[in-house]
């Protein structure tokens, strides 16, 4: 397997770099932590390293050093498509190297061969009450696969630490291979007649999700999914889902346990669920006016929401200080394929008006849109209108990033994470108020 060989070959060099930092610079002070940072969600505190991706506040995400537009233009493309193969992206995340067409296809083929989901996973989903949120079902399905973990078994049998990553890699490929089918099953079980189209072996990982939910002849939607599943894959190591899954896997919990944990974080409305919240917000605006509002009406609506204490979903970011390039990539898609769509018009109108209103009170650090401000409008246009499903799509993609971080964490022998917490009194004593 090419990816495995490449990782294997790279490990000694990475280990050497880390050992050197540890040995020669272990007392070097990277930064200070202020009380404000401690009290505001450890914001900006540089606490970990991961070389899979990095978010520059003014440029956005770079996946293994490549910007979103570079990733979209440089990765090998799917058949009859201008969009990348997700298999190529996984190769890039795992090895740091842009794959050839053949290398990207290799990952796609591995996924195809390992995609079968055991019947009992479907039984687990079907045993849940129909009102269960799709993200809960998604997380449960991942957990249901946990008994298949090769790492968990190997650990019990006493596998060497230096080999952990190999089992994480196998588990990750097994999990990611099954994920489009699991998402399609949840969609069809929850909203349709329960019948999932059997996967088409001629399609790539991203398009096959589209095909399994009945969009086998909708080329445009398949293109959208190819775009979507690449651009949501990773956002460095410290966002809620990535950090959660990293933390859990640092205890040597296997990839199923740690990925499900990450998905539970993604399911929060300030993180991935903003996907759902944002489209609900846009639909509410539309319902409220029964048409596209005038600029004045929309400004009034936004101000009312803010003074009632609501957040405007899809706006703001913990790290980014510019418009999210993932938002821009989807804007370009929408401009090409659905320029007249009323919801897209509304997305553009909010983008034109909301940032200056949000910026007025000077509190918000970045009043511009993040990726969630447009995600839903595209799904909605192509007829996937069950808005509480949208975060599952985010999850399908994000599992590529989470698993890549975890494989490399094991490859580099990263330790269990255990920072330190204080009491309020201790802080008060340190600043001298008691
Ligand atoms: C894929 C992703 O996860 S991207 C993020 C998706 N989430 C959303 O879109 C939800 C809406 N946005 C937010 O809630 C926030 O901007 C977050 C969670 C993304 C970032 O949070 P922070 O780093 O704390 O943002 P920031 O430092 O700018 O917040 C400062 C103040 O502005 C407010 N603010 C930030 N974003 C918004 C917003 N979209 N609407 C209204 N107020 C906002 C905060 O609530 C905070 O107010 P407070 O001091 O009264 O509590
Ligand atoms: O980076 C963050 O905190 C949130 C985000 O945009 C993502 O995880 O995609």
From TrEMBL:
Keywords, ordered alphabetically: Acyltransferase, Transferase
Gene Ontology BP terms: carbohydrate metabolic process; tricarboxylic acid cycle
Superkingdom of origin organism: Bacteria
UniProt EC number: 2.3.3.16
PROSITE patterns: CITRATE_SYNTHASE
Pfam families: Citrate_synt (PF00285)
InterPro entries referenced in this protein's UniProt entry, alphabetically: Citrate_synth-like_lrg_a-sub, Citrate_synth-like_sm_a-sub, Citrate_synthase, Citrate_synthase_AS, Citrate_synthase_sf
Class of the enzyme per the UniProt entry, highest EC level: transferase
Similarity remark: Belongs to the citrate synthase family.
Protein name: citrate synthase (unknown stereospecificity)
């Amino acid at each position: 397997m090419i990816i495995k060989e490449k990782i294997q070959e790279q490990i000694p060099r990475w280990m050497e770099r880390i050992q050197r930092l540890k040995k020669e610079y272990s007392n070097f002070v990277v930064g200070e932590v202020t009380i404000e940072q401690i009290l505001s969600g450890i914001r900006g505190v540089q606490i970990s390293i991961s070389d899979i991706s990095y978010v520059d506040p003014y440029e956005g995400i770079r996946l293994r050093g490549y910007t979103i537009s570079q990733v979209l233009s440089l990765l090998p493309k799917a058949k009859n498509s201008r969009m990348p193969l997700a298999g190529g992206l996984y190769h890039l995340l795992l090895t740091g190297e842009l794959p050839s067409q053949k290398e990207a296809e290799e990952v796609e083929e591995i996924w195809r061969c390992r995609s079968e989901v055991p019947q009992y996973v479907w039984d687990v989903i079907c045993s849940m009450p129909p009102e269960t949120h799709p993200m809960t079902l998604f997380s449960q399905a991942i957990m249901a696969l946990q008994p298949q973990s090769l790492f968990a078994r190997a650990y019990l049998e006493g596998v060497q630490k230096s080999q952990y990553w190999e089992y994480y890699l196998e588990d990750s490929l097994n999990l990611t291979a099954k994920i489009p089918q699991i998402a399609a099953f949840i969609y069809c079980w929850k909203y349709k007649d329960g019948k999932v189209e059997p996967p088409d072996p001629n399609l790539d990982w991203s398009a096959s999700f589209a095909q399994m939910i009945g969009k086998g002849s909708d080329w445009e939607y398949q293109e959208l999914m190819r775009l979507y599943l690449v651009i949501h894959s990773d956002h460095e190591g410290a966002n809620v889902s990535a950090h959660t899954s990293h933390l859990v896997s640092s205890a040597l919990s296997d990839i199923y346990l740690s990925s499900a944990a990450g998905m539970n974080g993604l399911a929060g409305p300030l993180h991935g669920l903003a996907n759902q919240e944002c489209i609900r917000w846009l639909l509410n605006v539309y319902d409220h006016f029964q048409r596209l509002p005038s600029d004045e009406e929309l400004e009034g609506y936004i101000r009312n929401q803010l003074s009632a204490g609501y957040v405007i979903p899809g706006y703001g970011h913990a790290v980014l200080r510019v418009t999210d390039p993932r938002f821009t990539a989807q804007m370009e898609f929408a401009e090409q394929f659905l320029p007249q769509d009323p919801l897209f018009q509304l997305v553009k109108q909010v983008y034109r008006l909301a940032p200056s209103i949000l910026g007025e009170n000077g509190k918000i650090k970045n009043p511009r849109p993040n990726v969630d401000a447009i995600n839903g409008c595209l799904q909605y246009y192509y007829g996937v209108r069950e808005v509480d499903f949208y975060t599952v799509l985010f999850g399908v993609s994000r599992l590529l990033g989470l698993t890549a971080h975890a494989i490399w964490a094991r490859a580099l022998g990263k330790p269990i994470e255990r920072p330190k917490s204080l009491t309020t009194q201790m802080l008060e004593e340190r600043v001298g108020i008691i």
